[in-house]
Every structure is written in C-alpha cells, then in structure tokens.
Design a protein that fits this description.
Elements: H1 17-21, H2 42-46, H3 62-65, E1 83-89, H4 95-106, E2 112-117, E3 135-140, H5 145-149, H6 154-165, E4 171-175, H7 195-211, E5 217-221, E6 248-252, H8 261-272, E7 278-283, H9 292-305, E8 310-318, H10 334-345
Parallel strand pairs: 1-8, 2-3, 3-4, 4-5, 5-6, 6-7, 7-8
Helix pairs in contact: 6-7, 9-10
Length: 351
C-alpha cells in the first residue's frame, strides 16, 4: 500500500500584477482572524511595494559580501556553494513526475524540496515521494501566538516534533513565515502588534522540539523582504528569535515591479549575513514581456555569485497558483529554461 501524502496546501490567491502594482504592502487582503491560510498571497503581493524606510544603498556592504560564520545546523552551510531547490507544483503532474521532469531538463536533482502544511496538519514522518537526493523543507503554518505561548498547543507541537524526528535525516523547518505581513493569523497585525509574542512562540516551539529529540531539524526564520504595514513596530528585525534559535535566515521576495535581485535581497544579507547563512526561501522570475524572465534569472545568478552569505535558493516553480494568471514555471520559454539551466549547472549552485 502506498504511503498516504497530505494534499498540497494551496497558497492564497495572488492579485494580478496590475492590481498588485497599485497597492502598497499594507493594503493586502487580510486573512480572517484566527484562520491560517498557507501558503498565502503575501510573499508575492507584498513584494510589489518597495521599502520606504530602507532604500537600497549604492553598493553592496561588507556584511553582504563577507562569508558568514559556518552554520545551518543539521543542514549545514557550505561556503561557496548554494543548495538549489524548489516548491514544485506543476499542473496535472504528481510531485514525483514533476521532479523527474526537472531532472531531465536540468540534468540534476533538486537539493531542496519545499512542501507546505497547515497548522492543523499532521507533519509527515516520511515523504518518500520527494526522493533521497533532496533535503525536505517544510513550511509549517503558524497560529495565534497565545495558543502557543499559553501552552495549549504543546501536545500538537510535541507530536509534530516526534514525527519530524522520525525522518532520521536533516530536515528544514520554516515555521510561521512572512510574520511581518498582515495576511496570516500568525503575523503581528493579527496579534496585537506584538512581535515579541512571535519570538516567544518560536522559542517555545524550539524548546519542545529539542525536548522531543528532533535534533535533525534546521530552523529557518523567513520574513517577507518588506513589511506590510511598513511601520517601525512591524520591522522584521523585531520578530527575530535570536541567534541561538535560528539556523538559517530566509526571505520571500518576488520582482513583481521589476525589482533587481539586489533590491529584493540586499537588506536581509546585510543584516544577518555575517552571523547566519542566508536562504532565499521563496522567489521566482516574473514575465514582464520579451526576455524579461530569462534576463532576471541571469541577473539573479550573478547576484548570488557575488553574495557569499547565500547558501540556499528555493524557487517557487508552479503554474497552479490559485487566484493569479502568473506562470511561475522555469520552462515557460526556451530562453527562460536555458537561463535557469545555466544557473542550476553552475558551480555556485552545486551545494
């Protein structure tokens, strides 16, 4: 009998590019109070609004270019090498079939396979469908902070910890992502504008996982590249749990307004790259006509080449995203696939 695999959780619908470009991050649709809706709009939508408080400096700072201290926890950072993987959901194909197609097109396996689970889901003790070549990254949705900090979720967390410990191999856990937005039940907006509550919740999860022996888990803290609302109390630094509780610093960012890779990623690299390895946990090229997708991938590859602190890249590779006509696949044209293939085959992405 085949192992049952939880159905892929659909991310909340994205607005169209034209509509999104007209809205600041603070104007995104809210998630209903108390309802987790992973994987949600936000990463893509909030990325349409440039940061009003931190303009991109003219040159990359030393913190971004300096190789970080070794880290990554059970999924280690390798200087000079970036793990390249994806959230892979191709219309009409299983994940096994999708992985096989990309293997054929790229001549290599995914080094990270990204999957989403709601807070209510049972985390998997195994995912044989992702194969042995890749490291599993689980984005596990959060919930209201009080449910965790008050202790009522301890049993759920302990069960999840034991199930991930049963993997018996290094696993990336991205809990409560994009907490600096206003579109999830676990963001600051829906929790009394109290980022400290997120920190407390994260640390409690971390402690329970440790107590349950889930020492194969690498913890990935992953804000959105800009905040919605973009106000001081909601700056993503306020949600950082502390170096002792984070193995990788991640970020979600998409060039919906034709932002350069540097505009999207420089701040996270500048802020944390000298202390923690950086993982670009959600990104993709956007079609603005002509060779725009291919050219952005080439520019992105060059940016990663020039930024040693980046140790992981996880593409959002799908054409099944509800609520949008955007096709995020890497093979929408021969030029786009060729650019992505060249990046995937380069030594820098050989992690």
């Amino acid at each position: 009998m085949p192992n049952p695999v939880p159905a892929r959780v659909s991310r909340r619908g994205l607005l169209t590019l034209a509509a999104a470009a007209a809205l600041p991050a603070a104007c995104t649709r809210r998630a209903p109070p108390g309802v987790a809706q992973p994987p949600g709009v936000p990463s893509a939508l909030a990325s349409t609004a440039p940061s009003a408080t931190r303009p991109a400096p003219a040159t990359t700072t030393a913190a971004a270019t300096k190789a970080p201290v070794l880290g990554g926890g059970p999924v280690p950072f390798r200087p000079g090498k970036a793990l390249l993987g994806s959230y892979l959901a191709l219309g009409g194909m299983s994940i096994t079939q999708s992985l096989a197609l990309r293997r054929k097109q790229l001549g290599r396996d995914q080094r990270i396979v990204h999957v989403f689970y709601t807070w209510a889901d049972n985390l998997p003790p195994a995912r044989p469908d992702v194969g042995d070549a890749g490291t599993l990254m689980i984005s596990w949705a959060g919930t209201r902070y009080a449910e965790i900090t008050g202790g009522s979720a301890d049993k759920r967390i302990a069960v999840g910890a034991r199930r991930l410990a049963a993997h018996g191999k290094p696993t990336l856990l991205r809990w409560g992502w994009e907490m600096n937005g206003n579109w999830f039940a676990w963001d600051g907006t829906h929790n009394g504008k109290q980022p400290a509550g997120y920190v407390q919740a994260w640390r409690r999860l971390h402690r329970i996982f440790r107590d349950e022996g889930a020492d194969n888990v690498s913890w990935v803290w992953s804000p959105n590249w800009n905040s919605g609302p973009n106000v001081p109390w909601n700056a993503y630094e306020r949600y950082y749990p502390g170096d002792a509780y984070v193995d990788w610093v991640g970020v979600s960012a998409y060039p919906f307004n034709s932002q350069t890779p540097r505009t999207l990623f420089h701040r996270i690299c500048d802020t944390y790259g000298s202390r923690k390895p950086i993982m670009l946990t959600e990104t993709a090229a956007i079609d603005h006509g002509g060779r725009s997708k291919a050219d952005w991938i080439t520019a992105f590859s060059a940016y990663v080449q020039a930024t040693p602190s980046i140790g992981g890249v996880v593409w959002f590779d799908t054409d099944t995203q509800p609520g949008t006509d955007e096709n995020f696949r890497v093979d929408t044209s021969s030029a786009t696939l060729a650019a992505y293939r060249a990046m995937a085959r380069s030594a820098r992405f050989g992690g």
